[in-house]
Specification:
The structure holds two protein chains of two kinds. Chain A is built from ten helices and ten strands. Chain A is an alpha/beta fold. In chain B, helix 5 packs antiparallel against helix 8. Classes of the chains: A alpha/beta, B mainly alpha.
Chain lengths: 236, 293
Protein backbone atom coordinates (compact mmCIF):
# COMPACT_ATOMS: atom_id res chain seq x y z
CA UNK A 1 0.00 0.00 0.00
CA UNK A 2 1.49 3.35 -1.00
CA UNK A 3 1.90 6.04 1.68
CA UNK A 4 0.23 8.58 -0.57
CA UNK A 5 -2.03 7.91 -3.51
CA UNK A 6 -3.87 10.31 -5.80
CA UNK A 7 -6.55 8.82 -8.03
CA UNK A 8 -7.97 10.89 -10.83
CA UNK A 9 -7.75 14.20 -8.96
CA UNK A 10 -9.32 17.21 -10.62
CA UNK A 11 -9.07 20.71 -9.20
CA UNK A 12 -10.26 24.07 -10.35
CA UNK A 13 -9.85 27.72 -9.42
CA UNK A 14 -13.26 29.22 -10.20
CA UNK A 15 -13.93 28.44 -13.86
CA UNK A 16 -10.36 27.43 -14.67
CA UNK A 17 -9.57 23.76 -14.33
CA UNK A 18 -6.00 23.36 -13.12
CA UNK A 19 -5.80 19.57 -12.77
CA UNK A 20 -7.43 17.13 -15.19
CA UNK A 21 -7.32 13.79 -13.44
CA UNK A 22 -3.91 13.42 -11.83
CA UNK A 23 -2.95 10.01 -10.43
CA UNK A 24 0.29 9.33 -8.62
CA UNK A 25 1.74 7.42 -5.69
CA UNK A 26 4.51 7.87 -3.16
CA UNK A 27 5.70 4.76 -1.36
CA UNK A 28 6.93 4.79 2.22
CA UNK A 29 10.59 5.81 2.33
CA UNK A 30 10.66 7.04 -1.27
CA UNK A 31 11.69 10.37 -2.78
CA UNK A 32 9.43 11.21 -5.72
CA UNK A 33 9.67 14.32 -7.84
CA UNK A 34 6.96 16.06 -9.76
CA UNK A 35 8.35 17.98 -12.70
CA UNK A 36 6.80 20.37 -15.15
CA UNK A 37 6.78 23.88 -16.54
CA UNK A 38 5.18 26.94 -14.99
CA UNK A 39 1.43 26.55 -14.81
CA UNK A 40 1.46 22.79 -15.38
CA UNK A 41 -0.32 22.22 -12.06
CA UNK A 42 2.56 21.19 -9.79
CA UNK A 43 1.71 23.57 -6.97
CA UNK A 44 -2.00 22.82 -7.34
CA UNK A 45 -1.27 19.11 -6.95
CA UNK A 46 0.43 19.75 -3.60
CA UNK A 47 -2.37 22.08 -2.56
CA UNK A 48 -4.90 19.40 -3.50
CA UNK A 49 -3.11 16.90 -1.27
CA UNK A 50 -3.03 19.42 1.59
CA UNK A 51 -6.71 20.24 1.20
CA UNK A 52 -6.01 23.87 0.36
CA UNK A 53 -7.94 23.69 -2.92
CA UNK A 54 -11.30 22.17 -3.87
CA UNK A 55 -11.05 18.95 -5.78
CA UNK A 56 -12.75 15.79 -6.99
CA UNK A 57 -11.21 12.33 -7.14
CA UNK A 58 -9.58 10.57 -4.22
CA UNK A 59 -6.49 11.19 -2.14
CA UNK A 60 -5.47 8.54 0.37
CA UNK A 61 -2.74 8.85 2.96
CA UNK A 62 -1.67 5.70 4.75
CA UNK A 63 -4.70 3.92 3.32
CA UNK A 64 -7.27 6.43 4.55
CA UNK A 65 -9.02 8.97 2.38
CA UNK A 66 -8.04 12.56 3.08
CA UNK A 67 -9.93 13.99 0.12
CA UNK A 68 -12.36 15.89 2.37
CA UNK A 69 -9.80 16.98 4.98
CA UNK A 70 -9.02 20.63 5.72
CA UNK A 71 -5.33 21.63 5.60
CA UNK A 72 -5.01 21.61 9.40
CA UNK A 73 -6.31 18.02 9.55
CA UNK A 74 -3.96 16.85 6.81
CA UNK A 75 -1.08 18.42 8.74
CA UNK A 76 -2.17 16.55 11.88
CA UNK A 77 -1.78 13.23 10.05
CA UNK A 78 1.91 13.94 9.48
CA UNK A 79 2.06 15.65 6.11
CA UNK A 80 4.44 18.61 6.22
CA UNK A 81 3.96 20.98 3.29
CA UNK A 82 6.67 23.56 2.62
CA UNK A 83 4.63 25.79 0.35
CA UNK A 84 5.44 28.01 -2.57
CA UNK A 85 6.97 31.19 -1.15
CA UNK A 86 8.11 29.23 1.94
CA UNK A 87 5.18 30.22 4.17
CA UNK A 88 7.29 31.78 6.91
CA UNK A 89 6.02 34.20 9.53
CA UNK A 90 8.22 37.12 8.55
CA UNK A 91 7.48 39.25 11.61
CA UNK A 92 8.12 36.43 14.07
CA UNK A 93 11.54 35.33 15.22
CA UNK A 94 13.42 32.42 13.70
CA UNK A 95 12.81 30.49 16.92
CA UNK A 96 9.06 31.15 16.98
CA UNK A 97 8.86 29.98 13.37
CA UNK A 98 10.62 26.76 14.33
CA UNK A 99 8.39 26.26 17.36
CA UNK A 100 5.34 26.48 15.11
CA UNK A 101 6.59 23.38 13.31
CA UNK A 102 5.98 21.43 16.53
CA UNK A 103 2.50 22.91 17.07
CA UNK A 104 0.74 20.11 15.29
CA UNK A 105 2.01 17.52 17.78
CA UNK A 106 1.91 19.45 21.05
CA UNK A 107 4.37 22.28 20.83
CA UNK A 108 6.45 22.21 24.01
CA UNK A 109 7.27 18.54 24.34
CA UNK A 110 7.75 17.90 20.64
CA UNK A 111 9.95 20.94 20.20
CA UNK A 112 12.20 19.95 23.06
CA UNK A 113 12.57 16.46 21.56
CA UNK A 114 12.98 17.38 17.92
CA UNK A 115 14.86 20.68 17.98
CA UNK A 116 18.31 19.16 18.68
CA UNK A 117 17.92 16.69 15.81
CA UNK A 118 16.84 19.41 13.35
CA UNK A 119 19.52 21.84 14.54
CA UNK A 120 22.03 19.13 13.70
CA UNK A 121 21.20 19.79 10.06
CA UNK A 122 20.96 23.58 10.43
CA UNK A 123 23.34 24.52 13.28
CA UNK A 124 23.41 28.21 12.29
CA UNK A 125 19.73 28.63 13.22
CA UNK A 126 20.57 28.63 16.92
CA UNK A 127 22.75 31.75 16.64
CA UNK A 128 20.03 33.56 14.68
CA UNK A 129 17.14 32.52 16.91
CA UNK A 130 16.07 36.03 17.93
CA UNK A 131 16.23 37.47 14.43
CA UNK A 132 13.00 38.20 12.54
CA UNK A 133 12.52 35.49 9.93
CA UNK A 134 11.73 38.08 7.26
CA UNK A 135 15.24 39.50 7.54
CA UNK A 136 16.97 36.22 6.56
CA UNK A 137 18.36 35.75 3.06
CA UNK A 138 16.36 33.73 0.55
CA UNK A 139 18.46 30.63 1.06
CA UNK A 140 18.28 30.91 4.84
CA UNK A 141 14.50 31.33 4.65
CA UNK A 142 14.20 28.16 2.57
CA UNK A 143 16.35 26.29 5.08
CA UNK A 144 14.26 27.63 7.98
CA UNK A 145 11.10 26.57 6.23
CA UNK A 146 12.50 23.07 5.72
CA UNK A 147 13.74 22.96 9.32
CA UNK A 148 10.29 23.99 10.58
CA UNK A 149 8.69 21.19 8.56
CA UNK A 150 11.15 18.67 10.01
CA UNK A 151 10.42 19.68 13.61
CA UNK A 152 7.01 18.03 13.24
CA UNK A 153 8.79 14.75 12.35
CA UNK A 154 6.55 14.31 9.32
CA UNK A 155 5.71 11.01 7.65
CA UNK A 156 5.60 12.78 4.30
CA UNK A 157 7.50 15.93 3.40
CA UNK A 158 6.19 17.95 0.46
CA UNK A 159 8.49 20.61 -0.98
CA UNK A 160 7.21 23.17 -3.46
CA UNK A 161 10.06 24.35 -5.72
CA UNK A 162 12.70 24.57 -3.02
CA UNK A 163 15.31 25.69 -5.57
CA UNK A 164 13.37 28.74 -6.73
CA UNK A 165 15.52 31.86 -6.65
CA UNK A 166 18.40 30.24 -4.79
CA UNK A 167 22.10 30.07 -5.64
CA UNK A 168 23.27 26.70 -7.03
CA UNK A 169 25.42 25.93 -3.98
CA UNK A 170 22.44 26.51 -1.67
CA UNK A 171 20.27 24.28 -3.87
CA UNK A 172 22.87 21.50 -3.69
CA UNK A 173 23.10 21.84 0.08
CA UNK A 174 19.32 21.69 0.41
CA UNK A 175 18.91 18.60 -1.75
CA UNK A 176 21.88 17.05 0.04
CA UNK A 177 19.96 17.37 3.31
CA UNK A 178 16.82 15.91 1.73
CA UNK A 179 18.76 12.92 0.40
CA UNK A 180 20.39 12.44 3.77
CA UNK A 181 17.04 12.56 5.59
CA UNK A 182 15.70 9.95 3.20
CA UNK A 183 18.68 7.65 3.51
CA UNK A 184 19.20 7.96 7.28
CA UNK A 185 15.69 8.49 8.62
CA UNK A 186 13.64 6.89 5.84
CA UNK A 187 11.71 10.10 5.29
CA UNK A 188 9.24 10.01 2.38
CA UNK A 189 9.41 13.08 0.16
CA UNK A 190 7.34 14.49 -2.68
CA UNK A 191 9.24 17.34 -4.30
CA UNK A 192 7.91 19.70 -6.94
CA UNK A 193 10.62 21.17 -9.15
CA UNK A 194 11.27 23.05 -12.35
CA UNK A 195 14.93 22.23 -11.99
CA UNK A 196 14.64 18.67 -13.34
CA UNK A 197 18.35 17.85 -13.17
CA UNK A 198 18.68 18.30 -9.45
CA UNK A 199 15.28 16.77 -8.70
CA UNK A 200 15.94 13.61 -10.72
CA UNK A 201 19.29 13.33 -9.04
CA UNK A 202 17.65 13.27 -5.61
CA UNK A 203 14.64 11.09 -6.38
CA UNK A 204 14.05 7.47 -7.24
CA UNK A 205 10.96 8.09 -9.36
CA UNK A 206 9.41 11.07 -11.07
CA UNK A 207 6.26 12.27 -12.77
CA UNK A 208 6.07 14.95 -15.44
CA UNK A 209 3.00 17.19 -15.37
CA UNK A 210 1.85 18.88 -18.55
CA UNK A 211 -1.24 21.12 -18.55
CA UNK A 212 -2.80 19.44 -15.57
CA UNK A 213 -2.20 15.78 -16.45
CA UNK A 214 0.63 13.33 -15.93
CA UNK A 215 2.40 13.14 -19.28
CA UNK A 216 5.32 10.85 -18.41
CA UNK A 217 6.26 8.82 -15.36
CA UNK A 218 8.95 6.34 -14.43
CA UNK A 219 12.16 5.89 -12.52
CA UNK A 220 14.54 8.82 -12.58
CA UNK A 221 16.90 6.87 -14.87
CA UNK A 222 14.12 6.15 -17.33
CA UNK A 223 13.13 9.78 -17.40
CA UNK A 224 16.71 10.91 -17.98
CA UNK A 225 16.79 8.67 -21.06
CA UNK A 226 13.31 9.72 -22.25
CA UNK A 227 13.83 11.88 -25.29
CA UNK A 228 10.94 14.30 -24.73
CA UNK A 229 11.86 14.83 -21.11
CA UNK A 230 15.50 15.30 -21.99
CA UNK A 231 14.76 17.94 -24.60
CA UNK A 232 12.06 19.82 -22.70
CA UNK A 233 13.28 19.65 -19.12
CA UNK A 234 16.91 18.63 -18.98
CA UNK A 235 18.15 20.80 -21.83
CA UNK A 236 20.40 18.42 -23.75
CA UNK B 1 4.91 72.02 38.38
CA UNK B 2 2.81 70.09 40.89
CA UNK B 3 -0.37 71.10 39.11
CA UNK B 4 1.15 70.03 35.80
CA UNK B 5 2.10 66.59 37.13
CA UNK B 6 -1.38 66.26 38.57
CA UNK B 7 -2.85 66.81 35.13
CA UNK B 8 -0.43 64.26 33.68
CA UNK B 9 -1.46 61.62 36.21
CA UNK B 10 -5.15 62.17 35.67
CA UNK B 11 -4.51 62.08 31.91
CA UNK B 12 -2.82 58.72 32.33
CA UNK B 13 -5.95 57.30 33.93
CA UNK B 14 -8.19 58.15 30.98
CA UNK B 15 -5.30 57.25 28.68
CA UNK B 16 -5.18 53.75 30.16
CA UNK B 17 -8.86 53.31 29.28
CA UNK B 18 -8.22 54.52 25.72
CA UNK B 19 -5.23 52.18 25.57
CA UNK B 20 -7.31 49.12 26.52
CA UNK B 21 -9.93 49.83 23.91
CA UNK B 22 -7.32 50.77 21.29
CA UNK B 23 -5.53 47.47 21.96
CA UNK B 24 -8.81 45.64 21.40
CA UNK B 25 -9.12 47.38 18.01
CA UNK B 26 -5.54 46.47 17.11
CA UNK B 27 -6.04 42.81 18.08
CA UNK B 28 -8.89 42.40 15.64
CA UNK B 29 -7.24 44.56 13.01
CA UNK B 30 -4.09 42.43 13.02
CA UNK B 31 -6.06 39.21 12.70
CA UNK B 32 -8.55 40.29 10.04
CA UNK B 33 -7.49 43.70 8.65
CA UNK B 34 -10.80 45.08 9.84
CA UNK B 35 -11.70 47.91 12.21
CA UNK B 36 -14.31 46.62 14.62
CA UNK B 37 -16.81 49.46 14.90
CA UNK B 38 -18.84 47.51 17.44
CA UNK B 39 -15.96 47.51 19.95
CA UNK B 40 -17.48 50.35 21.97
CA UNK B 41 -20.96 48.83 22.14
CA UNK B 42 -19.48 45.45 23.10
CA UNK B 43 -17.82 47.25 26.01
CA UNK B 44 -21.04 49.02 26.97
CA UNK B 45 -23.07 45.83 26.85
CA UNK B 46 -20.65 43.97 29.11
CA UNK B 47 -20.48 46.92 31.52
CA UNK B 48 -24.26 46.72 31.86
CA UNK B 49 -23.88 43.02 32.62
CA UNK B 50 -21.48 43.96 35.41
CA UNK B 51 -24.01 46.47 36.68
CA UNK B 52 -26.74 43.79 36.70
CA UNK B 53 -24.49 41.37 38.56
CA UNK B 54 -23.81 43.99 41.23
CA UNK B 55 -27.46 45.03 41.28
CA UNK B 56 -28.23 41.41 42.15
CA UNK B 57 -25.96 41.55 45.16
CA UNK B 58 -22.55 40.49 43.88
CA UNK B 59 -19.70 42.59 45.23
CA UNK B 60 -17.41 44.49 42.88
CA UNK B 61 -14.44 42.22 42.17
CA UNK B 62 -16.37 38.95 41.77
CA UNK B 63 -18.72 40.78 39.42
CA UNK B 64 -15.72 42.25 37.60
CA UNK B 65 -14.10 38.84 37.04
CA UNK B 66 -17.37 37.15 36.12
CA UNK B 67 -18.01 39.91 33.60
CA UNK B 68 -14.62 39.30 32.00
CA UNK B 69 -15.53 35.63 31.62
CA UNK B 70 -18.90 36.47 30.12
CA UNK B 71 -17.27 39.03 27.80
CA UNK B 72 -14.78 36.43 26.55
CA UNK B 73 -17.52 33.89 25.78
CA UNK B 74 -19.66 36.61 24.21
CA UNK B 75 -16.79 37.76 21.99
CA UNK B 76 -16.10 34.20 20.86
CA UNK B 77 -19.80 33.55 20.21
CA UNK B 78 -20.16 36.79 18.26
CA UNK B 79 -17.27 35.84 15.96
CA UNK B 80 -18.49 32.27 15.48
CA UNK B 81 -22.07 33.23 14.65
CA UNK B 82 -22.05 36.67 13.07
CA UNK B 83 -18.57 37.26 11.65
CA UNK B 84 -17.68 33.73 10.54
CA UNK B 85 -20.19 33.51 7.67
CA UNK B 86 -18.37 36.51 6.13
CA UNK B 87 -14.83 35.19 6.78
CA UNK B 88 -13.79 35.02 3.13
CA UNK B 89 -15.65 38.12 2.04
CA UNK B 90 -13.89 41.43 1.33
CA UNK B 91 -12.89 43.51 4.35
CA UNK B 92 -15.49 46.17 3.66
CA UNK B 93 -18.25 43.56 4.06
CA UNK B 94 -16.99 42.63 7.52
CA UNK B 95 -16.69 46.31 8.47
CA UNK B 96 -20.36 46.77 7.57
CA UNK B 97 -21.21 43.70 9.65
CA UNK B 98 -19.44 45.25 12.67
CA UNK B 99 -21.50 48.41 12.17
CA UNK B 100 -24.55 46.15 12.17
CA UNK B 101 -23.41 44.64 15.46
CA UNK B 102 -22.94 48.16 16.84
CA UNK B 103 -26.54 49.07 16.06
CA UNK B 104 -27.93 45.76 17.29
CA UNK B 105 -26.00 45.82 20.58
CA UNK B 106 -26.86 49.46 21.18
CA UNK B 107 -30.56 48.73 20.68
CA UNK B 108 -30.36 45.59 22.80
CA UNK B 109 -28.71 47.51 25.63
CA UNK B 110 -31.46 50.13 25.60
CA UNK B 111 -34.15 47.44 25.35
CA UNK B 112 -32.84 45.36 28.25
CA UNK B 113 -31.68 48.04 30.66
CA UNK B 114 -33.54 51.16 29.53
CA UNK B 115 -32.15 54.43 28.29
CA UNK B 116 -31.93 56.33 31.57
CA UNK B 117 -28.48 57.06 32.92
CA UNK B 118 -27.31 54.81 35.76
CA UNK B 119 -24.49 55.34 38.18
CA UNK B 120 -21.74 52.76 38.35
CA UNK B 121 -19.61 52.32 41.45
CA UNK B 122 -15.87 52.61 41.38
CA UNK B 123 -14.02 49.88 43.25
CA UNK B 124 -11.58 52.47 44.51
CA UNK B 125 -12.18 54.82 47.44
CA UNK B 126 -12.68 58.48 46.70
CA UNK B 127 -9.46 59.48 48.44
CA UNK B 128 -6.33 61.32 47.41
CA UNK B 129 -2.68 60.86 48.18
CA UNK B 130 -0.03 63.50 48.26
CA UNK B 131 3.34 62.50 46.84
CA UNK B 132 5.95 65.24 46.65
CA UNK B 133 3.36 67.99 46.47
CA UNK B 134 1.37 66.22 43.74
CA UNK B 135 -2.15 65.23 44.69
CA UNK B 136 -3.10 61.92 43.14
CA UNK B 137 -6.54 60.39 43.34
CA UNK B 138 -6.86 56.73 44.23
CA UNK B 139 -9.41 56.27 41.45
CA UNK B 140 -6.95 57.50 38.82
CA UNK B 141 -4.18 55.22 40.08
CA UNK B 142 -6.50 52.24 40.41
CA UNK B 143 -7.92 52.73 36.91
CA UNK B 144 -4.46 52.96 35.39
CA UNK B 145 -3.22 49.91 37.27
CA UNK B 146 -6.22 47.71 36.36
CA UNK B 147 -6.01 48.62 32.66
CA UNK B 148 -2.27 48.14 32.48
CA UNK B 149 -2.41 44.82 34.37
CA UNK B 150 -4.91 43.55 31.84
CA UNK B 151 -2.66 44.65 29.00
CA UNK B 152 0.37 43.00 30.61
CA UNK B 153 -1.52 39.75 31.20
CA UNK B 154 -2.52 39.69 27.56
CA UNK B 155 1.02 40.44 26.43
CA UNK B 156 2.34 37.56 28.58
CA UNK B 157 -0.26 35.25 27.06
CA UNK B 158 0.80 36.08 23.51
CA UNK B 159 4.48 36.00 24.37
CA UNK B 160 4.76 32.89 26.51
CA UNK B 161 2.02 30.42 25.58
CA UNK B 162 1.75 28.06 22.64
CA UNK B 163 -1.78 29.22 21.93
CA UNK B 164 -0.56 32.82 21.91
CA UNK B 165 2.16 31.89 19.43
CA UNK B 166 -0.36 30.12 17.22
CA UNK B 167 -2.62 33.19 17.33
CA UNK B 168 0.27 35.44 16.29
CA UNK B 169 1.13 33.05 13.46
CA UNK B 170 -2.47 32.94 12.29
CA UNK B 171 -2.55 36.74 12.21
CA UNK B 172 0.70 37.03 10.24
CA UNK B 173 0.13 34.24 7.70
CA UNK B 174 -3.17 32.34 7.94
CA UNK B 175 -2.55 30.07 4.93
CA UNK B 176 0.84 28.90 6.19
CA UNK B 177 -0.58 28.45 9.70
CA UNK B 178 -3.22 26.05 8.37
CA UNK B 179 -0.52 23.94 6.78
CA UNK B 180 1.10 23.70 10.22
CA UNK B 181 -2.10 22.43 11.79
CA UNK B 182 -3.47 25.69 13.24
CA UNK B 183 -7.26 26.02 13.27
CA UNK B 184 -7.24 29.62 12.11
CA UNK B 185 -10.99 30.16 12.56
CA UNK B 186 -10.70 29.18 16.20
CA UNK B 187 -7.80 31.61 16.66
CA UNK B 188 -9.91 34.44 15.23
CA UNK B 189 -12.73 33.61 17.64
CA UNK B 190 -10.35 33.66 20.61
CA UNK B 191 -9.03 37.01 19.37
CA UNK B 192 -12.57 38.39 19.47
CA UNK B 193 -12.94 36.98 22.96
CA UNK B 194 -9.86 38.87 24.14
CA UNK B 195 -11.00 42.05 22.40
CA UNK B 196 -14.30 41.78 24.27
CA UNK B 197 -12.43 41.30 27.57
CA UNK B 198 -10.33 44.43 26.95
CA UNK B 199 -13.51 46.31 26.09
CA UNK B 200 -15.19 45.13 29.28
CA UNK B 201 -12.24 46.35 31.36
CA UNK B 202 -12.30 49.71 29.59
CA UNK B 203 -16.07 49.97 30.03
CA UNK B 204 -16.04 49.12 33.73
CA UNK B 205 -13.20 51.54 34.38
CA UNK B 206 -14.83 54.34 32.40
CA UNK B 207 -18.36 53.90 33.74
CA UNK B 208 -17.87 55.55 37.18
CA UNK B 209 -16.88 58.84 35.51
CA UNK B 210 -18.89 58.84 32.28
CA UNK B 211 -21.93 57.10 33.90
CA UNK B 212 -23.79 54.18 32.45
CA UNK B 213 -25.93 54.79 29.40
CA UNK B 214 -26.26 52.97 26.08
CA UNK B 215 -24.08 55.49 24.23
CA UNK B 216 -21.42 55.84 26.90
CA UNK B 217 -18.53 54.29 24.95
CA UNK B 218 -19.10 56.18 21.73
CA UNK B 219 -16.78 59.02 22.70
CA UNK B 220 -14.28 56.65 24.29
CA UNK B 221 -14.21 54.62 21.07
CA UNK B 222 -13.35 57.72 19.07
CA UNK B 223 -10.48 58.43 21.46
CA UNK B 224 -9.43 54.78 21.06
CA UNK B 225 -9.46 55.11 17.25
CA UNK B 226 -7.27 58.19 17.53
CA UNK B 227 -4.95 56.36 19.96
CA UNK B 228 -4.68 53.30 17.72
CA UNK B 229 -3.89 55.42 14.65
CA UNK B 230 -1.41 57.53 16.62
CA UNK B 231 0.41 54.42 17.86
CA UNK B 232 0.13 52.49 14.60
CA UNK B 233 -2.98 50.47 13.86
CA UNK B 234 -1.03 47.22 13.47
CA UNK B 235 1.05 47.67 16.62
CA UNK B 236 -0.12 46.47 20.06
CA UNK B 237 2.65 48.44 21.77
CA UNK B 238 1.64 51.45 19.71
CA UNK B 239 -1.97 51.16 20.86
CA UNK B 240 -0.97 51.23 24.51
CA UNK B 241 1.58 54.04 24.15
CA UNK B 242 -0.79 55.94 21.84
CA UNK B 243 -3.62 55.60 24.34
CA UNK B 244 -1.58 56.84 27.30
CA UNK B 245 -0.06 59.65 25.25
CA UNK B 246 -3.43 60.75 23.93
CA UNK B 247 -4.94 60.73 27.42
CA UNK B 248 -2.17 62.95 28.73
CA UNK B 249 -2.09 65.32 25.74
CA UNK B 250 -5.84 65.83 25.70
CA UNK B 251 -5.91 66.43 29.45
CA UNK B 252 -3.07 68.95 29.25
CA UNK B 253 -4.67 70.75 26.34
CA UNK B 254 -7.92 70.93 28.29
CA UNK B 255 -6.17 72.33 31.34
CA UNK B 256 -3.72 74.76 29.78
CA UNK B 257 -5.13 75.88 26.45
CA UNK B 258 -8.01 78.19 27.28
CA UNK B 259 -10.16 77.71 24.22
CA UNK B 260 -9.96 73.90 24.44
CA UNK B 261 -11.35 73.69 27.96
CA UNK B 262 -13.52 70.66 28.48
CA UNK B 263 -15.65 71.13 25.35
CA UNK B 264 -12.97 70.82 22.69
CA UNK B 265 -11.14 67.78 24.04
CA UNK B 266 -12.69 65.36 21.58
CA UNK B 267 -12.05 67.60 18.55
CA UNK B 268 -8.46 68.02 19.70
CA UNK B 269 -8.11 64.22 19.78
CA UNK B 270 -9.39 64.14 16.23
CA UNK B 271 -6.91 66.87 15.32
CA UNK B 272 -4.15 64.66 16.73
CA UNK B 273 -5.49 61.75 14.67
CA UNK B 274 -5.36 63.93 11.52
CA UNK B 275 -1.87 65.16 12.33
CA UNK B 276 -0.69 61.59 12.84
CA UNK B 277 -2.16 60.56 9.50
CA UNK B 278 -0.46 63.45 7.73
CA UNK B 279 2.95 63.36 9.39
CA UNK B 280 3.37 59.65 10.09
CA UNK B 281 0.60 57.59 8.47
CA UNK B 282 1.93 54.31 9.86
CA UNK B 283 1.80 55.72 13.41
CA UNK B 284 4.54 55.80 16.02
CA UNK B 285 5.16 52.06 16.12
CA UNK B 286 3.41 50.79 12.99
CA UNK B 287 4.99 49.32 9.90
CA UNK B 288 4.69 51.39 6.75
CA UNK B 289 2.69 49.64 4.07
CA UNK B 290 5.01 48.33 1.42
CA UNK B 291 3.54 47.02 -1.76
CA UNK B 292 5.61 44.90 -4.05
CA UNK B 293 5.01 45.70 -7.66
Amino acid sequence: MPLLELRDVEARYGAIRALHGVSLTVEEGEVVSLLGANGAGKTTTLRAISGAVRKTGDVTFDGKSIARHAPESVARLGVAHVPEGRGLFGELTVWDNLRMGAYVRGERKTFKQEAPRVLGYFPWLEARKHQQAGTLSGGEQQMLSLARALVSRPRLLMLDEPSLGLAPTVVRELFGIVKHLNAEEGLSVLVVEQNANIALDASARAYVLEVGTIAVSGTSDELRRHEGVRKSYLGY
Amino acid sequence: MAAFLQQVVSGLASGAIFASLALALVLIYRATDVINFSQGEMATFTTYIAWSLMDNGLSYWPAFLLTLGIAFCGGVALERTVIRPFENKPEITIVIVTIGILIALNAATGWIWGAEVKSFDSPFPNTTHEIGGVTISTVDVGTTVVCLLTVIALWAFFRFTTLGLAMRSAAVNPAASRLLGVRVGRMLAIGWGFAAVLGAVAGMMAAPTVFLDPGMMLVVLIYAFAAAVLGGIDSPVGAVVGGLLLGVIVNLLGAYVDFVGSELRLPSALAILLLALIIRPQGLFGHPTVRRV
